[in-house]
Amino acid sequence: MTTPHSCKWILGLLVAIGLIAAPASRADDIFKSNFADGSFDHLGWTTKGTTWEIYNYQTHNASLLNGPGPVARFAGRGTTTEMLVRKFPAVTSPTSLTLTFDAGWGWGAANQSSDDFNIMLLDDDGNGYVFNVHRAKEKWAAQWGAVKAYVMPDTLNWSPTEIDATQASVIDGGNLQTFTITRDANGAWQFSGAKWTGGTPFAFTEPAITTTTFSQVVLLGKPNVDDLVFNKIKLEATK
Fold it and tell me: How many structural domains comprise the chain?
């Protein structure tokens, strides 16, 4: 026969087990985009300029077997700098922030070091951080910097160690590579590429935290020798 005392003991045990088994805080999806799923407008992206487009290399090259499908492309050999912008409800002082995306180049040599891409995490005023990748095996293959009013600094911060960020082009069967950017509540960042070798991930802590609210991701299309290509962009945050 169960006594009142034993009932209280069992109830206390169940509560304790429930507390122990309670899951830790989980990151929420802020947004995710796959450009195979629709137009820029449909996916919440805004183009600043006329060069950004959704493009499928396989449609234009029937012999390409290992293609990424529809992607956001900024065509090479352009002369203007243009943005592709995804705004979202502001996330302020998140416990953690994780941005993952696939990126690469449409054509060109894997070590075409003049090729680079830039992706930004910004607030409503265009302040925040830029992350830069070159197709090179150098310390400057991966860089970061603080952005003011959408403007990158003249000089970015290099990786402290050499990173091999060379990458074969889409038309050469290189497809895209997945990149990950994370930030914790104390302004400690990590930046990595799935295929990088060397000093990975590129880790750093902001000497002075300048931005704690984030409300937009910006793909910056700058004049490049070869096409810039992006897809499967996902932002997660633990608030």
Answer: 1
* Cα–Cα distance measured from residue 182 to residue 203, given in angstroms and rounded to the nearest whole number: 9
- Report angle CA 108, 109, 115 to the nearest 5 degrees: 70
**pTM value > 0.90:** no
* Contact partners, residue 132, CB within 8 Å, separation at least 6: 116, 117, 118, 142, 143, 144, 145, 156
Q: What's the angle, vertex CA 188, arms to CA 184 and CA 189, rounded to 5?
A: 90
Q: Cα(121)–Cα(194) distance, rounded to whole angstroms?
A: 20
Residues spanned by the domain of 189: 27-238
CATH number, position 87: 2.60.120.200
Mean pLDDT, the chain, integer:
89
pLDDT for the residue numbered 65: 82
* Contact status, residue 37 vs residue 31, Cβ threshold 8 Å: no
Place of tokens 């109830």: 11
